[in-house]
User: Fold these one by one.
Assistant:
Number 1:
Amino acid sequence: MARTYLVSFLFLFVSACASSSDFDMLKRDINDVRRDSYETKKDVDRLKERTTGVVKEDSFSAVRENQADINSRLTEVSSNLRELQGRFEEYKYNTEKTLKEAAAERDIARAQIASIETQIKAVKDKLASGEVAAQKQPEGQKAEPEQAKTEPATEEHAKEPANDKVKTNDKTKTYEAAYQAFKDKKYKDARGKFEGFLKEFPKDKLSGNAQFWIGESYYAEKDYESAILAYETLLKKYPESDKTSGALLKQGLSFIEIGDKKTGKTILARLLEKYPNSKEAPLAKKKIAELEKKPAGKNGKKR
């Protein structure tokens, strides 16, 4: 607006002082200046548009590059997480397997210790019987041979520790042989040996363990129905066994394997309620969580 006033003022001033030809020349110059100004403005506007487009394109390119970098990093992190999860599952499996084998080895060690204790007791009884017989011998009577001093005082007393010793040895050997067959994956042979052990020693402290391994042999063969019955026998006949929590876990898993997930989940929940601090409790909790996260089917129900 100020430029227009200035031009008008110059025009008036020149019109008063100049001739007609000078006026026409000045008017042409003014028009040329206006035209040049208009063209310059158009060039500036075009330059602005081009510059704006370049800035936007550069910005979009930077965003795309950042997004691609983030996606690449996320993919790498996911891959690392899957690898770590795989290692964890493998470690967990190996740990559980080691613990199970260690428990079985512990049972064998206990049986061996019991056998040794029985043998020591038998030796002590023999020594005590020999000392009593020596004290009761009349003065002047000829001493009996050394072998006689170590014999029990009566035949009945002699038979008891000897029989106990034989039974303990047989029991330990039978159990060890059955468990070795199980470790060798000879499940049918192991099952027969454990059943023989239970028939001969039905009330032994290892009877519950033997019944548990019978169930495990069926489970290893994927005969889940028979495994369920074997675990149930353990729970009913040997409720005080330290294998009851393990039997509940495997019984629940067996029901799930045959498709009865409702019963399996109920048994696992009972395990958590009855043995919340057992080593099987976390496994039961994880399995229940997996069952509850099953995807829904077409009708909206969980599969």
Number 2:
Amino acid sequence: MSESTTNTSATGDLLAIAREAVSQQDLASAETAYQKVLQVPAEANERTIADQETSLNELGLLYRDHNKAQELSQLIQTSRTVMGGFAKSKTAKIMRSLIDLFATLPDTLDLQIATTQDCVEWAIAEKRNFLKINLQTRLINFYFKKQAYFDAIAIIDGLLRELKRLDDKSVLVEVQLLEARTYHALRNIPKSRAALTGARTSANTIYTPPLMQAGLDHMSGILQAEEKDYKTAFSYFYEAFEGYASQEDARAITILKYMLLCKVMLNLSDDVISILNGKLASKYVGRDIDALKAIAAAHKNRSLKEFELALETYRTELSQDTFIRSHFSALYDSLLEQNLVKVIEPFSCVEMAHIAELIGLDTRQVEGKLSQMILDKVFYGVLDQGNGWLYVYDEPQRDVAYDAALDTVKQMSNVVDALYEKAASL
């Protein structure tokens, strides 16, 4: 029997032993058996290579399932020696799948970054350009999650130049979308918009997978909302929601929350229930959706107390999302205005202390907001700060005769100017 046949038989037997140990929850024996498979010289034997590929994947899954992040990182690094005789495409596939196993392990982001960076350096040394590009794209994602935005931008700048040179449009769209998200996180809206425009332009020339198209619509909705164009933002979010929902992606519920927020910001709180009763949205029930329903109800009732109660009740669901949190300031301000208008509607003269008591805020805060509302002509009135009173007036009707008089004075002024110029020329 040849040595290669012996190796093939040995790896097959070791795999069987490892799987039996896994079924018996004997982690140590399973790990030992898998490691022995990886130590067998492959010598271009297809069966041995296949067994070693299986061992790498199954051992990686074993480390993930038992929350052994350090061992998984070590496996990724040592696997490069094992895969020396593998085809480049197979090596890239295995390495990517092993890195993906980190995703479900808690508190491993720094380790993911270090491991991926090490793999990038190895890919550069081995001149595996396409693997390097794929790993750098993943590294950008990790930096974004860590909020290390400038580190992400540093990689993006170089990667975009290389992708444009290679004319790899599919990866180019992904990286440009990441660039748009990163600049948005840095609050550089013009650069974020420019990056998104570039991504959409590149996407128009190729087939765009549903999730990628949903990602583009997602980002477009966010940027439209930044400009307070909630109607257009809702349209983009709806397209993104359909894309994510069709692929059963977990981001669908996040986009649904954004859709509901847009309706609230447009003073269309009644539409919230209509959306939730729709075929696609009806299956997304839970505290996340209940939180937006509570906000919509508070906004409809123009009740600041209900709004603050909803924020307190659903603190986790509402405060963790940066998009929702960033727009709540404007929503709170709008709701405060509506609440004040509702309170002062029956009065022509009212004490500011009484208004503050009715809505449960400090008198100084109420006074400042009422002053701003008068200047913005939300309503017509005068603040008597000495006595602490607010006088509310009806909206003044513009006198047509007053406009005609102003126009007459303007024309007379023009005539006098013309006569003065003629007199000066004599």
Number 3:
Amino acid sequence: MSSFTEKDVQLLQLAYYFVSDCQYQFISTREAQDEIWLGNPKHPEYPIIRLSQTRLSTVFFDKTRILKIHQAIRNLFRRNCDLLDIHLSDEIVEDQEEQIDLVTISPQTVSDPQLTAVFPGIDHAVQPIQDPQQEYDRITQKLSELQRQRAHSTQKKSPLQPPKATMILMGICIAVYLLSLVFTFMFKNLGGSGEVSVAVAVLLGGYYKAFVVGANEYWRWLTSAFVHVDFLHLLMNMMALYNMGMLCEKLFGIRNYLIVLFGSILFGSAFVFLGSGNVVAMGISGGLYGLLAAFLVYGIQTRILFQPQLRTQFLLILMINLMISLMPGVSLAAHFGGFVGGLLISVVLTRNDSWAQLRKNTMVALCVAVVFIGLKTVEPKARELDAIYPGTDRMIVEMLRDLHLDFYGDHLSKKMVETYVGSSL
């Protein structure tokens, strides 16, 4: 005697339609009963579908559990969408539930005719069953074969697609580093190796408060992230960028990934400007700390950091980076600023409905922080230089003239003289 009912097999028929024709995947949920959850994060209208063989009335009593599962999948997909809840029934849908699009389907009818426009062929997906056991065996075999084909197709492709945006950023950093080697060799006669390296770093876009204040070169807040003149510094940052980029670019998408990275870099530079004297700074570590903060937000939002093993690994990474921040010659201000910026920006970019109020409050906090930084930046006290380095300035101007960029060198010379004459030093 068959242990499967007609509805059990029809549920598999419907699932097979979505998996084979609409590129959905099964989603395993521990709490699911008499139901199948499917997901396709690329579907424009219904990334998440629940198939059920229960009556419509059960949704009212089971809504809390259903929405809890739906929210968890939404967080994973980072999609703000309603749930398509399809029931194997010939009932008439009279009332809709909030956040849930209720539809009934049977071999004879689909309660919402518009669904056939979104999913062509769905009206023929469910068929009457003569022998449930035989039909069950047939569909499970077809599903297994489909899964094997997809697994084989995936294996043919590169299992780890390189993060495109991250690779481009790494390419820029490496290109700037190689250019720094060329310039350091070209201008080695202008001074000691350390002095020349510092001047070359500024020449290539490194942060230098004297030029930011004197010539209003605030673009250095961003370009300094791509400047590295020490191989070990470059190597460590590129390894960290690749690992974090591989993860964050996939989790957040390229647009949000770059927003968090660049925003964190700017926040880090702003903290250096307001908290440090006339220093030269370079490197992308402020942005890396922002990505670390963004992953923290993602881990809390999706609750993956509540898993003991992942939480321990994340805390270990955080402690290692904190120890690095306290080492001599490392800008704690840039790291802290990058972390704060990444934290604020990543919360604003979340789509979790339960975080709606937090997201609004964070948006206000982010705007206040930006306005505060802007106002503090123009204050005379913040623009004062605690020390001046005319030798470094002259070296940079000489490099520019040797590169036939006299107009820029003359511009810097004029601006720095005006700045230093007006300085109290």
Number 4:
Amino acid sequence: MEQADAVVYDRLAPEALLSYARSDAERIYVGKKPGDDQAMKQDEINRVLVELGRAGKTVVRLKGGDPYIFGRGGEEALELIEAGIPFEVVPGVTSGVAAPAYAGIPVTHRNVSTSVAFITGHEDPTKGRSDVDWKGIANGADTLVLYMGVGRLREISSELIAAGRGPETPVAVVRWGTLPEQRTVTGTLRDIADRVAEAKLKPPAITVVGSVVDLRDSGLGWYEKRPLFGRRVVVTRARAQAGELSAELEGLGAEVREFPTIEVRRPEDFGPLDGAIASLDSFDWLVFTSANGVEAFVDRLRHHGSDLRAIPRGAKVAAIGPATAEALERFGLRVDVVPREFRAEALIDAVADESLAGKRVLIPRAKVAREILPEKLREAGADVVVPPAYETVPSAEGKDRLVRDLESGRIDCVTFTASSTVDNFVTAFGPDESARLLSGTRVVCIGPITADTVRGHGLRVDAEASEYTIPGLVGAVVDLFAADPAREAR
């Protein structure tokens, strides 16, 4: 993906994989949806692949599942061979194995199923006949896995019963397997078509027939039990800092939409920071208010051929919270003070026992930030230097898509990790539009300062973290939905 000049991808290809493509890579969507006359036909897809190959481009043909199991990968490969274009195949995990596993159904299991058959439920309609030997298949394997058969489920069930498979044979239909939208309907060959129709389950889906389906009730359905399963959560952090929050939410089953409202950049003028670094041995305290500030400060030290060992031996170091402290400790610097509450006011209280009169304090931070910390330190008699180590600028990357998702009710929660993310969100959409877009979802903030900023814009806050950290924010999201389990995931 990182080497590709072009990525040709399907409807079922994991969207997250596209993020690995280069920013300048050509992205070509060739998804095919049942009943969609506008979808790209297979011969057109073949032609696109050949044309890209002949142009000398490195191409990734990205599919969901395995390309050689009902993925038409063989057809595309044969076209490339005929055109004299070299290729390689990277096997994937076929949905016929992955979807049941995520639904808590092993397709084989000792003493239950020693054989499995993969069958297409959607044959080439131009053939005019069926090549599926239902009589031979019905009892030819303990587990039957049917691809693309939801539209013909009633007919297929009747075929299997007529061929000798028991009407009470357990059946499960798994829609959008392995994704947060996953839904599973169970029944028997006798009633599964009615149950699926009642649940309004649509393609894409995998159907599993056999006694292994009953194992789902033994506690194997791990994925759908995650506390944020099926929830879509928006992360508004800068792209570079979103990873930790996104990973924790995804680990609990959420589908994350990253909407970076801010972008972290180098300051326009490094002069003030360079001056502070040049006189680093004159400071008695170094105060860091964010992990961004730590990384920017260390980067600038390295630019000057130095590192944190340049900090005077007797100087003390304070961090506004554990995440900032961890960032410092990763660089090998011991932190002297971390307040109990992770905000500027608490940091002031934490150093109150120290005499600050005549002390020099360095606070490398964002160009635009709350002034309460340096003001209070100056009131205590300190000489405070606040050079910009970085600056944040508004970003509206992915704005149109987020509007569509919010308007369609597909978003369960929007998270804010700092006042700047709130301000930039409102800047991106405008006050009235922000209120409209957020009226149908939940808003969760990392702490009271951020929550006050939200309310200051006339917006509602549904929950705020009691511990002003990323884990605290994740916990607030989990608690919010645990308190309202009746509210169905979107």
